[in-house]
TrEMBL record:
Recorded GO MF terms: 4-phosphoerythronate dehydrogenase activity; glyoxylate reductase (NADPH) activity; hydroxypyruvate reductase [NAD(P)H] activity; NAD binding; protein dimerization activity
Known EC number: 1.1.1.290
Keywords: Cytoplasm, NAD, Oxidoreductase, Pyridoxine biosynthesis
Residues given in the record as NAD(+) binding sites: D146, T175, D242, G267
Organism of derivation: Vreelandella zhuhanensis
Subunit text: Homodimer.
Alphabetized HAMAP family for the sequence: PdxB
A GO cellular component entry from the record: cytosol
Protein's job: Catalyzes the oxidation of erythronate-4-phosphate to 3-hydroxy-2-oxo-4-phosphonooxybutanoate.
Gene that this sequence comes from: pdxB
One GO process term, biological-process aspect: pyridoxine biosynthetic process
UniProt-recorded name of the protein: Erythronate-4-phosphate dehydrogenase
Alphabetized InterPro entries for the sequence: D-isomer_2-hydroxyacid_DH, D-isomer_DH_CS1, D-isomer_DH_NAD-bd, Erythronate-4-P_DHase, Erythronate-4-P_DHase_dimer, NAD(P)-bd_dom_sf, PdxB_dimer_sf
Similarity comment text for this entry: Belongs to the D-isomer specific 2-hydroxyacid dehydrogenase family. PdxB subfamily.
Amino acid sequence: MKIVVDANVPAAERCFGFFGEMLRLPGREITPADVRDADALIVRSVTPVNAALVANSALSFVGTCTIGTDHIDLDALKARDIAFASAPGCNAEAVVDYVLSSLLTLAERGGWQLGERCVGIVGVGNVGSRLRSRLQAMGVATLACDPPRAEKEGEDGYDSLATLLERCDVICLHTPLVPDGRHATHHLLGAQELDRLAPGSIVLNAGRGDCIDGLALRQCLVGRGMAGRGLVGRDSISAVLDVWEHEPGIDAGLRDLAALATPHIAGYSLDGKLRGSWMIHAALAAKTGRTPLSLDALLPPPALAELSLAQALDAEDALRLCVRAVYDVRRDHDRLWRQMHEEGITLGFDHCRADYPLRREFSTLKVNLSGEALRLASLLQAAGFQVNQQT
């Protein structure tokens, strides 16, 4: 069996060398010639798998180690009877970690408390539902907008986008990209929607870049933001952007206006990546009648396994301490700025993703609490950490 694999798929040797001959190639450079005699193709989000790529191939299986399938022409695969698998939810916990790290960073810069905010979550799928659960457990007010889910499940628990824009001061986008139709998400936030944001609002996009009109957002930030300073004032509009239109050739002007700008890495935890590889490995094993490896066999122990707190701290200061012990979003923001200035926009963006440093999820850290710090237990557990109460 011959398997073509994106060179940036982690644990590829263990997950896919398992099945036979493996050829690793840069994801953006995979061509029809590369897959002509291949039995399986394993990609991430940068490889467009379309009719032209698979037309003259021997492929019987395509897997993407990502939650999204925007880059996959499912009709083209179906027409050629090519089995397909994706990895829904594989990196959802990492994206929620990213959101919490970002909001806690902006709260520290702006001198406000996350618990004072109302967070509007647009798209309540694998990521959005987990984010809502964590925030609610942390005592943060949330509203949710997901018209397709509301139609299936009933309106209770869901609000319109207009309601979120009116009542929330944080808007988090976690929707798939739907180009057209009744529930289209392309440019879901355009000039009109952005104009309705209340002073001091934050827009965070860790879903799909095309769900925000980038030009309209840039104009909004020029008029109402704090350009280039990364600060959040009470009257400004600020943006946290992990996904962009026209990746990797993103709008450098918009990047400079964003309070936090990162290169599509919100879900790039080691845990999420390995979970994605393992899910496709398991799907290919099922198709070929093999017994898959266990996920635990792929996950290494974390570099920082435990942290202990004994003294009373402000709750959100303690939360920030634990969050940054695992993942500090400011490093990704600074690295993107540095790489893009050194290498140019496209190369810098891609190199940030290809050479991304090791990152674990909040759930890999056990926080030992004793003394006055015991009162932090419920908050830290709600945020996603393991908590050990030592009485």
